[in-house]
Amino acid sequence: MSLREIINRPVSEWMRGSGPDRDVVLGSRIRLARNLAGIPFPAVASEQQLEHVMTMCREAVAKAGSLGNMEFVPMSSLTPLERQLLVERHLISPQHTKAVRHKAVILRDDEVVSVMINEEDHIRIQVLMPGMQLGLALDVADRVDNGLEGQLPYAFSETRGYLTACPTNVGTGLRASLMVHLPALALTDQIGRIIGAVGKFGLVVRGLYGEGTQAVGNIFQFSNQVTLGRGERETVEHLISVTRQVIDQEREARQAILKRNETWLEDRVLRAYGTLAHARVLSSREAMQLLSDVRLGIDLGLITDLKPEILQELLVLIRPAHLQNRVGRELGPAERDQLRASLVRERIRAFQAEQE
């Protein structure tokens, strides 16, 4: 499958919404940072060295037949719009779209696996799955990692583990993340306390697109901070254990709101539904907040003619690059707001028709 076919696919695998604990956990991500022995990290490597990394990785993917249907795509071959599409689909980082010479992305055709070449590290393997599936995502990431390691000389220390550009990644090189939807904790003003509490357990809380981004639509990313002195499985189990406590509190908060003031909550989610179904202009932030309220209504049974995955699908499709790709031209802010509203109305009608 070509990159263009991947980009134009309506939804990624993780956006389909299936998976355990999907009422709170939207997605699970595993990222492994790796570097090649004898070559400086990307920030200080020469152009010749970065090009050599590209060549070695391209050849490794071709030789490692166990990786599945993978496509090697130089970032310089993509337009700025195509690069941003990959960011919005969570397949690459925003950092990977800058200074793109001697950078690449390796994509599996189902979008579950993506590998960034010459980002902060020489190799960054990512696996993204719907719901609470961190263990399975780690299994897939390990298979990709083993396939590449069989062809490439990794930079590894017997005492420190995998060597990485950032000291905070040394050791396993693992960043495990859970994307969680916490509308009830936000509505009851508990989210600040929760964020502070999980930090004491060695986790960090970020926004929708990771480090340096804000939380929108009550969606947060919980991930590990420690990569040294703790094994990969132990790290994943610790993240799941702490996040499960937050999941339980979110569910309790939902039921408490429903029991205490069902009419108010029903009015809130149905107003959001009505606005999304009929609005002619929607900013990205407003759309995300309304979608958060609608998803809460779906999960609590207050809205019965929409599927839960409408949130995952639209939180990607209403982003600026996807809107511009949809019409094939650059759009100004006002045009994007109008097209976003039109797309949301269209998708709501489609979901309603599926339920009939």
Overview of the structural elements:
The chain has 356 residues and is of the alpha+beta class. The protein is 46% helix and 15% strand. It has helices at residues 3-8, 47-63, 80-88, 134-149, 183-187, 191-199, 232-260, 262-278, 284-299, 310-317, 320-327, 333-355; strands at 25-34, 70-74, 104-108, 113-117, 123-130, 156-157, 161-162, 174-181, 203-206, 219-224. An eight-stranded antiparallel sheet has the order 2-3-4-5-1-8-10-9, with helices on one face. The protein has a two-stranded antiparallel ribbon with strand order 6-7. The longest helix has 29 residues, at 232-260. The two termini are 33 Å apart.
Summarize the structure.
By secondary structure, the protein is α+β, with helices and mostly antiparallel strands.
Give the secondary structure arrangement, pairings included.
Elements: H1 3-8, E1 25-34, H2 47-63, E2 70-74, H3 80-88, E3 104-108, E4 113-117, E5 123-130, H4 134-149, E6 156-157, E7 161-162, E8 174-181, H5 183-187, H6 191-199, E9 203-206, E10 219-224, H7 232-260, H8 262-278, H9 284-299, H10 310-317, H11 320-327, H12 333-355
Antiparallel strand pairs: 1-5, 1-8, 2-3, 3-4, 4-5, 6-7, 8-10, 9-10
